[in-house]
Amino acid sequence: MAATASPASSPSLVTPPSKPWYKQLYFWVLTAIVCGILTGWLWPSVGVALEPVGTTFVSAIKMLITPIVFLTIVAGIGGVESLRRVGRVGLKSLLYFQAGTLVALAVGLIAVNVFQPGAGVHAHPGELHLSGDAAQYVKDGEGQSWWHFLTDIVPSSAVGAFAEGNILQVIFFAVLFGIALKAVGPVGVPIVDGINRLSAVVFKILHYIMLAAPVGAFGAMSFTIGKYGISTLTSLGQLIGLFYGTSVFFVVVVLGSILALLRINIFRLLRYLREEFLIVLGTSSSESVLPRLMAKLEGLGVRRDVVGLTVPTGYSFNLDGSSIYLSLAAVYIAQATDTPLSLGQQLGLLAVMILTSKGSGGITGAGFIALAATLSTVGTVPAAGIMLIFGVDKFMSECRALTNLAGNSVATLVVARWEHVLDTARVNRVLHTGTPEPAAAQPHDTEAEPALAKA
Length: 455
Known about the structure:
Blueprint: H1 25-42, H2 44-49, H3 51-79, H4 83-115, H5 132-142, H6 148-152, H7 158-164, H8 167-183, H9 189-210, H10 213-228, H11 231-235, H12 237-261, H13 266-272, H14 274-283, H15 290-299, H16 304-317, H17 320-336, H18 343-356, H19 366-378, H20 387-418, H21 424-433, H22 450-453
């Protein structure tokens, strides 16, 4: 069965380059972010009062995340010629995710040991008292074991997974549903067609919501600066600077080198996704651009089944920014509390983080819970030490989300190349012109096309 054209790759999600710059979404989002910073700085009480504006926009986006993930994965599986390809793409994605997580954790571990931002703080663990949200994060983290993501992947209710917005559980259910849909043969063809049509409707709703992206970014940034103040950025400036610098290094050097092997320029890819990065910066949530990211990657010519399986799964398993944050923050707390960590203990931390980092992306606070879970599991670093970085965690969450977004974009291209279905010339053409091209129909489940295999 030949795949139908993907309605998910809705052109309404991609801003036409022919529009004047002042009519493009990225300009208005950037303007909103600047206005939000000024509002929170000059009128802090007003900025704090604008919190519902930002949270409402993020909630509106999250409302559509689980249905879009479900529809995209089911349509992707239903559109391939055989389940063998689905399993192959899924396995390659998970292998790359694990390798990427390990590298990101190692980069963060090396950076914090080289620069030692926590040295000289000399905070006494006994004097650190958990309170407010930080106490709740630690409580949530203590309730999570290193293996929790393995058991939590199976929802107690399919409806509950959608209601709670648990992406990992929705992915699990969607994969089972898609496999069953393929297994029933011709009976499932009308259902696949119906899912494609339903996807078009859901993406049209998303298009309407994205028109409010500048408003959401303004509210979220106003609250952040009004609540925590610009001075918060300088109180732990060395830690923040190291995290941002390490993340930039990872994206430009590590991810850039991977793309260079594919003969793709990392800076052109970042420019192509500039609107998505600005929306993430304003909302602190990579989930807010998940549907747009999939549409943009399909616009590069990446096949729908690769995008539909790799991107949603990467949002739970490929969290490069969260991984860098975990290793850097854990060792920073150890340094700040004068807790000695041997090389073996740090490697033990890294081993636990490989597991606790899964599912820690998406929204603010999830990375903090993963950090608390790591410290509670290992026990060598006082969990109360997270109070030292709680005040600036909000400012680091933006960087986590931005790095996660970049990592999942690169991962999709790598998996497509691994599948020998990445037309590098086409990708570079789109990145150069800025004009997305519709994804080609999926080929039959044979070995890779010779022309693409040589690319």
